[in-house]
Amino acid sequence: MYAALWRVLPGPLWLRILQVLVLIALVLFVLATWVFPWVDTIVNSQESTVGTP
Amino acid sequence: MSDATPPAAPAESRRARRALRRRKPVSVIGVFGEVLITGGVLVFLFIAWQLWWNDLVVAGEQSSAANQISQQWIDDAQAASSTPTPTPTNTPTAAPAQPSGFGTPVVAVAPAEAQPFAVLYVPRYGAAYSRTIAEGVGLNVLNSPRLGIGHYPGTQMPGEVGNFVVAAHRSANGGGMHLINELQLGDPIFVQTADGYYTYRFRDLEYVQPTDVGVLAAVPHAPGATATDRIITLTSCNPLYSTAERIIAYGVFDSWQPISAGPPAELAAIIAAQAAG
Known about the structure:
The complex is a heterodimer of chains A (53) and B (277). Chain A has 53 residues and is mostly helical. Chain A has a domain at 12-36. Chain A is 72% helix and 0% strand. Chain A contains two helices and no strands. Chain B is elongated, with a radius of gyration of 28 Å. Chain B is built from four helices and eight strands. Chain B has helices at residues 10-22, 28-82, 139-142, 265-276; strands spanning 116-121, 131-135, 148-151, 162-168, 188-193, 196-208, 230-238, 245-258. The interface between A and B is medium-sized, with 21 and 40 residues. Chain B: This is Class E sortase.
């Protein structure tokens, strides 16, 4: 999977590494901006009150 | 592919080997393994985001929102005192038994659900710490980037005889009570409202089951008893990063001063520092 992605990337080694870093940054941004806040609403178990459900 | 090509030169054979590897078919198990590893990394990233990154972001937002509302009350009080309004007819009756020089503390009426009405300052949590207290302990209050601390509906208000009970997260979503276990006997717990400043002093900690609503009583663990003291109760999760138990911090009322009199000396320095940025 990742090997195939690596093969698809064009350019010399340094350019490929740069592209991978940009892709990772992009994925992290999407996760932190949209995915994780959404997951947080589903798995939230951070109850800190007494007696309330 | 498997034809034996005599290795002529080391460089050439390396190239041949690389070509071989490149042509290796994508194996199902390999992809499955990579998917599993990716899933594990994602879970790790989520935990890091929840407990560290988002916690920091929300804490900053909650703190600056609290500073804003605090400053608003101070400005409003100054504007009200500078405008020539008729002297209030409703002068507070002198209560000789009060420990402070400003008479009986003013007790506000609890606002509607999710409405902010107070700001909490706990110097032990850090000089930059401030959080807005709103009515209700739902996640819409506790997780909100502009609120963070919830007041249990039905419990008393700041300065009222009885028990002023609030809840906040121990970790994540701003972690309003992250350092609750660090409180020391006598530590000030300041509550600012539109009416004034209420100073409580930390008394003790208690660890209870999540179902133990006895801590919400006007006299904790003595429901039905007539309250004579003014206390504040902070509730949060225990242990840290778990929700198995609840940690309860009690504080007793120390003094009160109206907003026109300005904050107590220790709090004044904190408010000034936070307003400065």
